[in-house]
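Work Package 3 committed the consortium to producing structural models of liganded targets before the mid-term review. Because experimental data for this complex are still outstanding, the team generated a predictive model from sequence and the ligand definition alone, so that downstream docking and mutagenesis planning could proceed in parallel. The input record is reproduced below exactly as it was submitted to the modelling pipeline, together with the SMILES string for zinc ion.
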Amino acid sequence: MGSTAGRMILVLVWLVPFLGPASCAEPGKKSTPAVQEWHEMSVMYAFPSVVLPGTRLWIEGGPFPDESFGTTEVVLEGTFHHDDGFAQVFEVLPAVRHRADRVYVDLTGEILSRIGGGALREGALVVRIWVRATSLFSGREYVSDVLPLDLEVALTLVPELDAVQEDPFLYLEGKLGFQGSNLFLGEEEGSSVAVIEGCLLPAGAAGPCESGGTMIGPVALPITDADPRTRSGGTVVLPAHVFGVHPASFTGTLRIRNEAPQGAGYESYEQPLALELLEVELTQVSTVRSSLGGYVDLHGHAFAPAANGCATTFSLLGTWTPEGGSSQALDLILIPEIRDGDLARHVLDDQADLGEVLDLRTARGVVDADLTARVCCGADCEDSNTVPMRLELVPVLQKVRLMYQDSYFSALAQWGLTGVDAAIRDRAFQVIRGLYDGIHVELTEEEITDYRLYSRVEIHGFDPNGYGLLGYDNSPGKDVGNVRLHDVLGGHNALTQEDGYPGYGGVFLHSFFGLSRNPPAGLVPMEIADALFDRVFDPFRPDRKGTPVNAQEAASHTPVSHGPSCASVGTNRLERVACAVYVLGTLLGTTLAHEIGHSLGLAQPYVDGAFHNPGDAPLRLMDAGNARSFVERAGLSEAGFEAFCAEDFLYLRDVLPDPDSEGGTAGRPACN
Ligand SMILES: [Zn+2]
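The resulting structure, written out as tokens with the ligand in place, is given here.
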């Protein structure tokens, strides 16, 4: 028995490297399934090239799908060579998708032991590497091309320090650059620190330092900016809590210490250090216009974060002039977030400083002031120069980020409309913008960096609640007055789930097939399903024997100028493409606008427990589900386009008035 089992294992060891990848997935092999849910993927680089237990191995290439699409894995196949021989390697490792062009896997000690044939050992890992993504919806695997990769497996790293920056002038809280190598890249492998010791002589004090100065260190400071590809380079911030807040000369040494997670570390040789440390300075205020929840960016040097007994505050001395009103004096202290020595970001908050003096929801006018920074560590303080600031304040603005998830893209394949993705998003964007004309709402698909408070709406392919909902606002409670500016319609919201409502919010593309009389397997037609829906989309749906839009059609169709004509679209293929874009884009847009309306406190804002307009009247955007027909939702009605009803619109104008646009009030349906 024992010998048979032994032989079996031996046979498997020989077969695995050949059968392994073929049996799971075929890297690089092109196949054309009926419904292509994802793009072709490439793998271009993997780093770092020296790995040890705890290393995060990065793989660049892509595009790699996010977790809404399904699971992503990295496959390694090859051999591990060590002093006593070699071992076959076939590892399928769960990967984390960081960005569309980057995934990583964490090479734990357990994984490297397995690769080492049951023990952690040094050696050379010669493998082929690829990325595999599995669709949550179809279960189908999508495989990247293959990258040959040579990795060195090490058990520890001995740091080296080759040089320190030559320029002796450095602001406090600034980064001192050096040329290190063999640096640890993350806590799991160990940490690399810069060890500094020497003597600090205040500017203007008589030397030598040994008599007129202060001895510093040895102090271990975290290393930043090590190059993740080469484990080299590096910077270290010289913090005010160690070096003080005043200008000074520092003479001493720098060395690097690698602190391993367990056991002894190693140190590099030291390099001499001679620095002129400079005190706090303000350069400019870059924000010229903002509103509640927005950042005011203050630039300069030597800003100390609020930690270790230090802090940076800004005194603002000037005037506030409301539009059409007279000036009033301002004398405030701002306490911004210190991002680093060079950037402080102040949030316009209705509970503090400016927000205590004016109503940031409604105020419109200009702040003209002089700004001075003060850095203190304990009772020891240093003031900066003074710079002018001119900031225009506008009434509350609701920023909304539309976040199309990769499952949305993969779901689009079921419609045969992958090729016109951008045109559909564009149409949806225009629809929402039009519906919110006159309301101070700003939409974007890009990352929002100039506001701390903004809403996010996720557009998914599939409804994770399993209810087949078109969309769901899972932000907690009814937000009358839009008090919350940072709702999240998407992801998982445990708060709402406690209420017994679905936990996942957002908008779900696949559920829109419920408007079909012939939805794909697993969906049932909604009450408002309409044969017109099938007339528009059947020509493209693979499951209805349609032909997906090709690249040429995507590039050459002309956008629809009069939506209701799509209700009688003929057989011209390019006109059909244009109508499919118009109808799906409009459905998405009206659904998103409806869900955003919920997050702003609609409908019937002052009636507890009511979320929609009562009854069913034509073309009211905030009517309940079945009170909005397919023709209304899709912009196909000759009678007009959906809109906020009159009182709902007045409520929105009250809560979020657009200072630059009145929006149309005529011709709106009544709410009751
Ligand atoms: Zn609703």
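Reviewers should note the following from the model. Residues 1-33 have pLDDT under 50 and may be disordered. These observations will guide the Year 2 experiments.
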